[in-house]
Design goal:
Blueprint lengths: L5 H7 L8 E3 L4 H10 L5 E5 L5 E6 H9 L11 H10 L3 H4 L13 H10 L5 E5 L5 E6 H11 L1
Parallel strand pairs: 1-2
Antiparallel strand pairs: 2-3, 4-5
């Protein structure tokens, strides 16, 4: 049996291939506008000037910054430092999560499914090329639908 790769899956499926991205300099208002234009998206990938993946901004992170609610210390910072950061955040680079799980077109699809589940990536996973440029995205729902169709 031939191993199905991410690239093969994206070519033959109806899964959304395009990734929703913003540049590091995007304002919080621009990030929200991007999310609203792409209705179903609850996360946007942040890219640098070359299109390389720099981070991700989730709807939850954006809401925490815009609404200033639910602020809790993270990564060992003091609450005062966290609150100051939340209040002064101005762009995607200020609020993005920089540790992003991703995959390539060549990776076996089953490995990517397992990676998403084990790393608790329940929404969307960026697909990157050899230069770490975002070239697409995998939606967990589409992967699960494909798994059920195979049974």
């Amino acid at each position: 049996m031939k191993t199905v790769t991410v690239g093969m899956f994206l070519e033959r499926s109806n899964a959304p291939y395009g990734a929703v991205t913003v540049r590091k300099e995007a304002t919080l208002r621009e990030i929200l506008g991007t999310m609203l234009r792409h209705g179903e998206e609850r996360a946007v990938f942040v890219v640098d000037d070359d299109g390389a993946l720099a981070g991700v901004v989730s709807l939850g992170a954006l809401a925490r910054h815009v609404m200033h609610e639910g602020i809790a210390p993270q990564n060992g910072f003091s609450p005062a430092t966290d609150i100051l950061h939340y209040l002064t955040a101005e762009n995607a680079a200020d609020i993005m999560e920089t540790e992003v799980v991703c995959c390539s077109l060549e990776e076996p699809l089953e490995d990517v499914r397992q990676k998403m589940l084990s790393r608790k990536v329940y929404k969307v996973l960026p697909v990157v090329d050899g230069s770490y440029r975002v070239i697409g995205a995998l939606n967990l729902i589409a992967l699960l639908e494909a798994s059920l169709a195979e049974e």
